[in-house]
Every structure is written in C-alpha cells, then in structure tokens.
Amino acid sequence: ERERESRLTSPSPLQVRIPMELTAKHSVSHHDIHHATATGPLKDLVFEMACAADAHIKTARSFHSQVAPKHRLALLPAVPCHVYLQQLEKRDFDVFATPAPVPVFSLMKAFFNESY
Length: 116
What we know:
Helices cover about 50% and strands about 10% of the residues. Helix 3 runs antiparallel to helix 4 (about 80-90). With about 120 residues, it is mainly alpha-helical.
C-alpha cells in the first residue's frame, strides 16, 4: 500500500511531497516549508528521507552484475541522484541551500566505467 503523502507547497510553483508520517514524527510544519526555514526537525526529516534514497540506490547497484549490459543504461539516473545526496550531506541536509549542478563529467565517467 502506498504511503499517504501530504502536499506541502513551497514558495515556487513546485510541490514537495513528504510522507505525512515523517512530518508528524519530526514535527515539521507547513510553516517550515512555506518560509524555507531549515529547522533542526526539517533537517532530521530530510536526513531520514536521504538515507532511504541512498539505501534504494545501493540496492539497485547491487543488481548491476545481474542486469544485461544492454539494459544497464536504466541505472544511469542513479548517478545524479547519488551526487545530489552527497551534496545534500555536505550542506547538512538543508534542502533550501542552493545545490551545485551535477557535473556532466560525473555522468560521462559513470557511463564509460559502467559504475552506475
């Protein structure tokens, strides 16, 4: 069953989807999101979501050798996700800090080395 999600909107037209269970667990309010306030509870929530995302990436990568070479390109989107998670960690899980763009070189290197 899909987790229930709350729709928290940011000042931009983009929507942020965060599981309601996590907003309740970490006591994150709509105010924190609307006003782009990187509070301790919000950083804890982002940390928990980032850990789950990282676990999913690691699981996908563990199947790399079982995926036929012609289908491995399907794993390439994991590269910018992994780079974003690393940048998020460097920014102390502040989702409102401006991230650096994902360098194209990292995508090319992953593609040629098949390290995605």
